[in-house]
Design brief:
Elements (H helix, E strand, L loop, with lengths): L2 H23 L9 H26 L10 H19 L1
Helix pairs in contact: 1-2, 1-3, 2-3
Length: 90
């Protein structure tokens, strides 16, 4: 496996866990000024551009439920597919 593919694979796995952490923190009540609030703000800033792509697509396909945001799930599936394709290439 080349160094570039290995590095890209590692970055995709790390981003996967960032999305999972954001989803888990979104279930907690967050108070402004706490460490968890700041962590969620960072995770939101890092993942929102990526997840917004899927949120728009789900809305356009009328698959958005409104109450439950499915964009993290779709984003994780896309990352998983990308990781599998990288594994095939290497």
């Amino acid at each position: 496996m080349s160094v570039g593919i290995s590095l890209l694979s590692w970055a995709l796995w790390a981003y996967t866990w960032v999305i999972v952490a954001r989803a888990l923190l979104s279930w907690l009540p967050l108070r402004q000024g706490t460490a968890s609030y700041k962590a969620y703000g960072f995770l939101y800033d890092v993942t929102e551009p990526y997840l917004q792509l899927f949120r728009r697509a789900l809305k356009a396909l009328r698959l958005s439920t409104g109450a439950i945001d499915l964009s993290p799930l779709v984003g994780l599936v896309v990352l998983y597919i990308a990781l599998r394709l990288l594994a095939l290439v290497s």
